[in-house]
Amino acid sequence: MLAAQRPVLPVRQEMALDSNSRSPNGFLSALTADDFELVRPHLRSADLVQEFVLVAAGETLKRAYFPHRGVISLVVNLTKGDHVQVAMIGR
């Protein structure tokens, strides 16, 4: 998806994690309680719009995404204009 075609609002809803919850993400839930508390203030739960491009080639990554449902695809643009999915991240 080209930048001009991106949805205007990529996030349907975003909220901070409450102090009593752990992340449903496998990586984050594997952290010790102390380590998780170090990163908790920086975490937000976001409901993303389907097919939104999180970051395109050449752009600076501004956020890290730790999915706890759904799938994030890594898509490579080929020289002739086609795309190919090379990886999927998620449950």
Task: Give a description of the structure.
By secondary structure, the chain is α+β, with helices and mostly antiparallel strands. 12% of the residues lie in helices and 29% in strands. It has helices spanning 26-29, 33-39; strands at 11-16, 44-48, 71-77, 83-90. Strands 1-2 form a two-stranded antiparallel ribbon. The protein has a two-stranded antiparallel sheet with strand order 3-4. The radius of gyration is 15 Å and the shape is elongated. Residues 1-9 have low confidence and may be disordered.
Features:
4 strands; two-stranded antiparallel sheet; 91 residues; 2 helices; disordered N terminus
**Helicity, as a percent range:** 10-25%
Coarse morphology: elongated
Measured between the Cα atoms of the first and last residue, the distance is 23 Å
Oligomeric category: single chain
Total helical segments? 2
Question: What's the helix-strand series?
Answer: EHHEEE
Mean pLDDT: 79
- Read across the widest sheet, the strand sequence of neighbours is 1-2
Structural class of the helix and strand makeup? alpha+beta
Largest sheet: 2 strands, antiparallel
Number of strands: 4
Query: Regions with pLDDT < 50 over 5+ consecutive residues?
Result: 1-9
Strand content: 25-35%
User: Radius of gyration from the CA trace?
Assistant: 15 Å
Short description:
With 91 residues, the protein is α+β, with helices and mostly antiparallel strands. It has 2 helices and 4 strands, in the order E-H-H-E-E-E. It has helices spanning 26-29, 33-39, and strands at 11-16, 44-48, 71-77, 83-90.
